[in-house]
Amino acid sequence: WAGGFQRPAFLSPQDTLFTKMATVYYQNIKSIYGDYKFFGGDPFHEGGNSAGLDVALAAKTIQQQMQSAFSGSTWVLQAWGGNPSNALLNGVDKAHTLVIDLFGENQNNWEKTDAYNGTPWIWCSVNNFGDKPGMYGKLQRIVEEPRRAFKTPQGKLMRGVGIIPEGVLNNPLLYNISLISAWNTKSTDSLLRDYMLYRYGKNNAHLLKALQLLKQTVYVSHVEYQEGSTESIFAARPAKEIKSVSSWGTRKLFYDNKQLEEALKSFAKVGQQLKGNEAFKYDISDIARQVVANRGQMTYDSTMKYFNRKDLKAYQFYKNKFFKLMRLQEELMASNKNFLLGRWLEKAKSFGETPYEKELSEINARMQITIWGPDEHDYAHKEWAGLIKDLYLPRWKKFFEQLDREITGIPARKIDFFAMDLVWVKQRNSYATLPKGNFLELINKVIASK
Fold first, then answer.
1. Same domain, 218 and 251
2. Domain of 214, in residue numbers
3. Which pTM value belongs to this model?
C-alpha cells in the first residue's frame, strides 16, 4: 500500500462471519455515537485485492448490513484512482449511495464515468496533500467547473460542491472562495473583491492588485496535471538531483516568482494599516514564505549547476546564498504564531493524560511531519520555525560538507538522513510557542533581498 504500509485484513462479505461482525460493529457505533445517516468506507481505496471476490455481491451485502442497522443511511464512496469500480457500483442501491468526486481541480471523472454509472455525486477538490505549506490551487477552474458540471446531463445527479484537502491550515483564500462560489454565480474577480472586504475589512487598490496577482501565480488555473502544491526544497532530503520532496510531489513552478514578489510588495504597502489584523498577518507572512521558498528552488538549481561544472567560486556563492535563504525563512516563520513548531508539539502533548501518553503523542507528532512511513518521508513536511533550524538546516549542512569534499577531489561519504530524522524524532526539547521579531520588518527584508 502507499508509503510501504501493509493494508489491513479484509473480511469477505461472502464469509459467514461477516453478518455477525457487521451486526456487532453497527451496534457499537449506535451505542457510542447515536443514529447516523452517512457512512464512509471504501474496501478498495488505493488498491486492495479482490481476487476470488464477487465485488458486486460484496458491495450489496455491505450496504444491506448498513441499511439493516441504520435504515435510510447513505454509503459515501471516494472516487480516486479507479475507485469505485463499475463492479462495485453495480452492486449498490444508488438511492442510498453518494460518490465524492475528489480530484475536480485536475480531472472530470464525473463526466468520463457518466456520473459514476448514474450515482449521486458531489464535485470536490483535494488541492492539498499532507497539509503541506505551499500556496496552490486552480482557482478559476474551482469556481467555474462545478457550474459547468451542474448544467450537464450528469449534473442532474450532482448533489453539491465540497473540498477534501488533507489539511486546511493553508490556502484560506482558495477554500473560502471554493465553498462560497457554490451559492452564487459571481465571477472569480468579483469573489476576490468580496473576499478582500470581509477578510481585511477594507476596499483597497493595493490589496485588490495583490489578490489578482495571486490568481495569476499561486492560484493560476494552468492545464497541466499537478498533485498538490509546489514543494519547498528546504524540506527535502538533500541530494544532487531532487525532483520532489515527497513521493508524489513536484518542485515545478507554474508561474513567474517575480509576479508573486509583486503581490508581496502590494500587500506590504498596507502593512502599517493592517498590522493588527490577524488574517492579514497570516496572509502576508505566507506569501513571503512562498517567495523565499521559490528563491530557494532556483538557488539550489544554480548551486548544483556550478557544482557539476566544478566551478568552485560560483558553487560557494550559491551555496552560501541557499543557507542565507534558509536562515531568513526560519526568522520569518518565527515571527508568526501560525508557523511555530512549538505550538504543534504542545498541542500534541495536550492530547495525553499520563506522561507516557504525552510522550507518545509527541513522538507521533514529530514523526508525522518527518519520517512518515516505511517507504515515504516528508509527505507532511512543514516550513515551521524550529523545524527549519533543527532538522532541515543540519541536513543541508551535512550534504554540502560532502559536496565541499567532492568538488575538491576528496571522496564524499554517504549520509543516513533517516538516522538524522530519527534522532530528531526521539528528542524531547521544547520549542517556542510565542512569535518573536517584527513581522513587517522581516517582510521588508524579504522584499529587499535577492
1. no
2. 2-232
3. 0.95
